[in-house]
Amino acid sequence: MYKRQPQLAVRGADVLVPRLARAERTAEADDTAPAWSRGTVLVTGATGALGGILARHLVTQHGARHLLLLSRRGIDAPGASELRDELTELGADVTVTAVDVVDRAALAEVITAIPADRPLSAVVHTAGVLEDGVLAQMTPEQLETVLRPKVDAAWNLHELTRDLDLEAFVLYSSVAGLLGTAGQSNYAAGNTFLDALAEHRRAQGLPGVSLAWGLWADTSSIAGHLAEADLRRLARAGLLPLNAKEAMELFDAAPGTGEAVLAVTRPCGAAASRCPCCAAWSAPRPSAPPLPRAPGPRPARRSPSGWPPCPRWSGAGR
Ligand SMILES: NC(=O)c1ccc[n+]([C@@H]2O[C@H](COP(=O)([O-])OP(=O)(O)OC[C@H]3O[C@@H](n4cnc5c(N)ncnc54)[C@H](OP(=O)(O)O)[C@@H]3O)[C@@H](O)[C@H]2O)c1
To answer: CB within 10 Å: which end of the chain, N or C, has fewer?
Structure first.
């Protein structure tokens, strides 16, 4: 059975393999849902596909009233003025600012300028870019392009806000860092940093959660370039697209798990009838939507049904 595992860890007499496990809602964490309506919520990459969906969700579902939306192009980004007008119409006070969040000094200036009567209360870092390529041909420029808005920007946000009273610090990561996806070694590394940062912040008693999203159905410059063959390959890896409604339900469910790192994706439910492991993943739950989390290594074992571990999840390394 071990021959099929790309990663093993031997700890004493135990042979461990990494696995995703379904996250459970915990009563204590349930009480810690962020109050998005308090103060100013800063969203990086807010003019992107997922940032815009989140901004609308925070205003319509959580009563967020003060939004600071950041991207390099700011109001000149496609759809940015429409987003601002729509959110304003809904009663929110919206500032769209052009800033490169990799630039620490520029970001510090933006954060310092937040009015004292609506202090910064939450950060959601969605900014990110792709520059795919096979590992052997990955250039330093490709690495830098992808790592800087993930690693440098997240660290800037962490350091510039660590002394503030934040309700939430959410990082938009990707399952690429947990599972590995073809041609995305730079992207995987950047997202793994986000996952580690969330753990690091938790260890320091700070809020932090890294949401390692699977594929979203909504097109964006991140996902929009995928060809049919790419989508089929992702589906074979168990990554079926989430629609915005499902994704925002999972976003809301995340704090209730108490976990710092969550793989937020839809397991391969379409194959459920053929695969007992996946059937277990897609079984309906009475209290919470499915929210796979990324645990530490688990002992290798056969699935309850007696089938070998599902190959779709066998690459969940951290
Ligand atoms: N879409 C998916 O299926 C998917 C799946 C897994 C994870 N994710 C993650 O979700 C996040 C959002 O993805 P998306 O699909 O919404 O991407 P997107 O539509 O391409 O939006 C990315 C946003 O980030 C901004 N941005 C990029 N670099 C920046 C920088 N240095 N400073 C400030 N803003 C910057 C872009 O605006 P400017 O160009 O104007 O700066 C844009 O607003 C990404 O971090 C991605 O890794 C997405």
So the answer is: N
Atom of ligand 1 nearest to the CA of 213: 6
The predicted-structure confidence for 67-108, as pLDDT tens digits, reads as follows: 999 999 999 999 999 999 999 999 999 999 999 999 999 999
Q: Which DSSP category does 309 fall into?
A: P
Q: How far is CA 21 from the centre of its chain?
A: 17
Rounded to the nearest integer, the mean pLDDT of the chain is: 83
Q: State the Cα–Cα distance between residues 246 and 254, nearest whole angstrom.
A: 12
pLDDT digits (tens, 9 = 90+) for 109-129: 999 999 999 999 999 999 999
As a whole number of angstroms, the distance between CA 46 and CA 70 comes to 6
| Cα–Cα nearest to 96, from 118, 66, 117 | 66
Distance 14 CA to ligand 1 centre (A): 40
Q: How crowded is residue 240: how many other Cβ atoms within 10 Å of its Cβ?
A: 18
Residue with tokens 């469910």: 253
The reported pTM is 0.86
Q: What sign for the dihedral angle of Cα 102, 106, 112, 117?
A: negative
